[in-house]
Amino acid sequence: MIAIRGLALVLVLLAGTAQARDQIGVGIVQYGLFRADIVAKQPDAGGVTHNMVDNICHVATTRDVPMKIGVHFGVRYKVTGPVAGERALLKKVILYPAVMKPPPPGQPLSQVSNFVELRVGASSYTEYALEQAWELVGGTWTFQFFERDRKLAEFSFTVTEGASVPESGEPTCFKLSS
């Protein structure tokens, strides 16, 4: 009887942990056009360069992105959940509007992804910076956030040649949570 009670307690604790993990979420705090200092670059096997950025400033709230070299667009987001400080491993995915063809030795790509470990309550930022001519592809670019196979959030932008930077006040600059 004691063994059954002990097993029942373990099952309840495991179920509680699974429920808490299922409550991990991502909330979009800010989106649009940004400017940032690129402090490091890391190319991946697909030919896409991942930038490490600092001095991030929100320039305009918009889903319409000008298709030109030097434009940074993305989202600032916050990890939510029931236990502050709990670790969450997130997969960030950016779906391209069409298959992109980086120069050799890069392979054709329909998306780019990476993992980030953050804590519940932390704010972070992810962007795409149009830096190469092969990245100038119009259409819908979609940012997605996953925990394992569960989609937590999705946000889309439309990149077009005719888009302009909307008038806005002073840029809002921020530091990322550590």
Provide tags for this entry:
single chain; 178 residues; mainly beta; Immunoglobulin-like; five-stranded antiparallel β-sheet; five-stranded mixed β-sheet; 1 helix; 10 strands; globular
Question: Regarding CATH, which class?
Answer: Mainly Beta
- Secondary-structure element string: HEEEEEEEEEE
Number of alpha- plus pi-helical segments: 1
Low-confidence stretches: 5-21
Helix percent reads: 10-25%
Number of domains: 1
Question: What is the radius of gyration computed over CA atoms, rounded to a whole number of angstroms?
Answer: 19 Å
- Cα(first) to Cα(last) distance is 47 Å
The CATH topology is what? Answer: Immunoglobulin-like
The share of residues in extended strands comes to over 45%
Whole-number mean pLDDT: 86
Give the total of beta strands.
10
Q: Give the CA-based shape.
A: globular
User: Main β-sheet: number of strands, strand sense, barrel status?
Assistant: 5 strands, antiparallel
* CATH architectural name: Sandwich
**Helix/strand/pairing class, anyone?**
mainly beta
**Widest sheet: strand order?**
7-4-1-2-10
